[in-house]
Amino acid sequence: MAGVTTGSADLIGFGIDIGGTGMKAAPVDLATGELVDERYRIDTPQPATPDAMALVVKELVAHFSWSGPIGAAMPTVVRHGVAHSAANIYESWIGTDADGLFTAATGCDVAVVNDADAAGVAEMTFGAGRGRDGVVIVLTFGTGIGSGLFVDGRLVPNTELGHIEIDGLDAEARAAASARKRDDLSWEQWAARVNRYLVEIVKLFSPELIIFGGGASKRADNWVRYLDVDSELAVASMANNAGIVGAALIARHPVSGVST
Fold first, then answer.
1. What is the pTM of this model?
2. pLDDT digits over 37-53, tens only?
3. What span, in angstroms and rounded, lies between the C-alpha atoms of 178 and 232?
4. Does residue 104 or residue 90 have the better pLDDT?
5. Domain pair 12-115+241-257 / 128-237, same fold
6. In the predicted model, what is the mean pLDDT of residues 118-136?
7. Helix or strand or coil: residue 138?
8. Contact, 260 vs 132, CB < 8 A?
9. CB of 152 within 8 A of CB of 129?
10. 208: which residues sit within 8 A by CB, 6+ positions away?
């Protein structure tokens, strides 16, 4: 049992990264973005209902004997603490006061945020987007396509750019990392789909920088070289810790006012 406490509350935060298959947590050094203790992971309960997941969140927090503010990243649109979508989690999450549910379960103040937004905050604070002004977009390629949009370092939350319609289809239906495996595509073939998607993103937002995260970023050498768009491209550097770190940072700030 880890014994991290909030003795240096201004320096140490706590983040939880909630996914469709696993829920991970760790205390975070807010000055460096490094984890203070080894990540602790528990399988996401199936079905991933609010009550079942609240019990896991409680267990994750208890593992570290944590008693301060908590940030939780989830695959959902979050407005004023309420979930408004449900990607790879149970549909009953829609309309649930996620902040209130997790706060009641843990006895700590919990701020819930979209998972791609959390990953983006981590990258903008400690990773590939650090110090960058203008429009920066963080795209996570995994089961779907998540997005974090930043203007001069400030988050524009809940953009959901993976759901832009391209050629009559939801963009992530063709360009998510899962589509490559589903359709048995080579990396070059899949990169052509990603490039088609990026052309539209660049046309709409004219970003200074696009950062690639998510599972596909681990094999960036296989596909990023095939991309050709009029924006600078970079690979995320925070890896699997991005959601935890970003959530911990956001717990210290209102999502609408996050500034990196």
1. 0.90
2. 999 999 999 999 999 99
3. 25
4. 104
5. yes
6. 97
7. strand
8. no
9. no
10. 132, 133, 134, 135, 136, 231, 232
